[in-house]
């Protein structure tokens, strides 16, 4: 991910994104919106870029605002006809069809119950309709998506979630050096972890939460001491 340090303000025209859009299709993440042929900031903060074509504003916010392509962790709330209502931490609940799972058919529906955790991707999100989720990729395969079984679920700030999702973030690599584990990070500020034992799992959660107040510059230093945090 590009460490662009330019700070933009609400209402400011973001020409660097407009220039990129001239040569390829770009994805606008949180904090950016398109007005006619212009790209304008809706939030204040550093402009971030992830190859090949995703841009967003790294704004500290409490409530998650869904954006197309986001990986999120949702909580199944209810079934309504062929849809499931899912809490994703935004102002509105999201919806996911039973057909949005690998190999799902009318006769082979996913067995989802209220309270189940889903690792899903936002398929559609705009101000006029409720967000739509899927648990398959463009090839119809689940990959890492789907129901999260067992493990330990906890919430964090949206900024920490984005830190952990950075390809260059050393935190998860540092933790992997200590013990094997599974993890799902939702950009909506939700994390699920699972290790061999509950003690190791809780230790992982404590280590991750120790990064809560870290910035991009501080996280490298903290990662060097993650082992001691896991032992507490």
UniProtKB/TrEMBL annotation:
<dbReference type="InterPro" id="IPR041054">
    <property type="entry name" value="Rrp40_N_euk"/>
</dbReference>
<dbReference type="InterPro" id="IPR037319">
    <property type="entry name" value="Rrp40_S1"/>
</dbReference>
<dbReference type="InterPro" id="IPR012340">
    <property type="entry name" value="NA-bd_OB-fold"/>
</dbReference>
<dbReference type="InterPro" id="IPR004088">
    <property type="entry name" value="KH_dom_type_1"/>
</dbReference>
<protein>
    <recommendedName>
        <fullName>Ribosomal RNA-processing protein 40</fullName>
    </recommendedName>
</protein>
<dbReference type="Pfam" id="PF18311">
    <property type="entry name" value="Rrp40_N"/>
</dbReference>
<feature type="domain" description="K Homology">
    <location>
        <begin position="151"/>
        <end position="197"/>
    </location>
</feature>
<dbReference type="InterPro" id="IPR036612">
    <property type="entry name" value="KH_dom_type_1_sf"/>
</dbReference>
<feature type="domain" description="Exosome complex exonuclease Rrp40 N-terminal">
    <location>
        <begin position="26"/>
        <end position="63"/>
    </location>
</feature>
<dbReference type="Pfam" id="PF21262">
    <property type="entry name" value="RRP40_S1"/>
</dbReference>
<dbReference type="InterPro" id="IPR049469">
    <property type="entry name" value="RRP40_KH-I"/>
</dbReference>
<comment type="similarity">
    <text>Belongs to the RRP40 family.</text>
</comment>
<keyword id="KW-0694">RNA-binding</keyword>
<keyword id="KW-0271">Exosome</keyword>
<keyword id="KW-0698">rRNA processing</keyword>
<keyword id="KW-0539">Nucleus</keyword>
<dbReference type="InterPro" id="IPR026699">
    <property type="entry name" value="Exosome_RNA_bind1/RRP40/RRP4"/>
</dbReference>
<dbReference type="Pfam" id="PF15985">
    <property type="entry name" value="KH_6"/>
</dbReference>
<keyword id="KW-0963">Cytoplasm</keyword>
């Amino acid at each position: 991910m590009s460490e662009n340090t330019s700070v933009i303000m609400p209402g400011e025209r973001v020409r660097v994104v407009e220039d990129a859009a001239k040569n390829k299709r770009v994805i606008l993440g949180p904090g950016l919106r398109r007005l006619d042929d212009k790209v304008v900031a809706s939030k204040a903060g550093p402009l971030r870029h992830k190859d090949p074509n995703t841009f967003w504003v790294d704004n500290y916010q409490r409530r998650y605002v869904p954006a197309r392509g986001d990986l999120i962790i949702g909580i199944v709330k209810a079934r309504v006809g062929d849809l499931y209502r899912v809490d994703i931490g935004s102002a509105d609940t999201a919806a996911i069809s039973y057909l949005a799972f690998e190999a799902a058919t009318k006769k082979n529906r996913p067995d989802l119950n209220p309270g189940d955790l889903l690792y899903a991707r936002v398929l559609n999100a705009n101000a006029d309709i409720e967000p739509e989720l899927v648990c398959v990729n463009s090839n119809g395969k689940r990959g890492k998506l789907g129901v999260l079984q067992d493990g330990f679920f906890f919430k964090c700030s949206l900024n920490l979630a984005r830190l952990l999702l950075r390809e260059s973030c050393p935190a998860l690599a540092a933790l992997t050096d200590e013990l094997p584990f599974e993890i799902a990070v939702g950009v909506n500020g939700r994390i699920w972890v699972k290790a061999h034992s509950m003690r190791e799992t809780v230790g992982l959660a404590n280590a991750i939460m120790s990064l809560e107040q870290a910035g991009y510059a501080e996280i490298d230093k903290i990662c060097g001491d993650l082992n001691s945090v896991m032992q507490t």
